[in-house]
Description:
By secondary structure, the protein is an alpha/beta fold. It has helices at 31-43, 50-59, 79-90, 116-124, 144-162, 178-186, 220-227, 240-252; strands at residues 10-13, 15-16, 28-29, 70-75, 96-99, 107-108, 111-112, 128-131, 168-170, 191-196, 209-213.
Amino acid sequence: MVAEPPVVPILLYHSVSEDPPVGQERFTVTPARFVEHMDVVAAAGGTVPLSTHVAALVDRDRSVAVGRPIVTFDDGYADFGRAALPVLVERGLTATLFQTTGVIGAEFCGTSMMDAPALREAAAAGTEIGSHSVTHPHLDLIPADRLERELVDSRRSLEELLQRPVEGIAYPHGSHHRRVVAAARRAGYRWGAAVKDAGSHPADDPWAVARVTITAAHTAADIEAILTGAVERAWRGERWRTTAYRQVRRIRHRGAYEVHR
Length: 261
């Protein structure tokens, strides 16, 4: 019997703060708890950038990054630079940050977002920067012309700001579809990160890499469990419940988004 390939733990954070952004209370980890989490990650052997794991997926190389945790952040709250980055640097860890470009340097959800100098500083410290679109829509609900702008403009903005290639995108809300993936390819991206709340593995989809959302409730023991494989293995393709939920979102967001199949 052939053993299943091991799970590659990819942690998804949003905010690290004592004062959560509005509406992000569940997804905000306190600085003290983040320190505890990263101590567990460091003890597990340190991190690799998400692109390193994706390269292994593309090359079908099951030896690369196996067992090495990956830390990612979505949205680009300013507290990444203030609270998370120093903890990462102190422990010799790296992270992959997906920045929503339309709010760079702005106030959003009652809190500050990363500005241009902070993004450059993070990149200089070893943080891998990817796109999280321009305005954070459900990409699978918007029409083709807007989808192209969200993907192309965000990538261009980051490349101009950082003066380096931007190859990865994290789909806002985790929402993607084959149409979105095709548009991301055309826009020049080389891989995409989904959510799924499941463990990635060497046979995962490089255009929908699975990550596990970390919430305020996760303890250091929970992180250790995730790192040792106590999560569902990611699947390829789209589950029926995801397809069904897209129909619910179309109805819920009618008026905010132009309904598009």
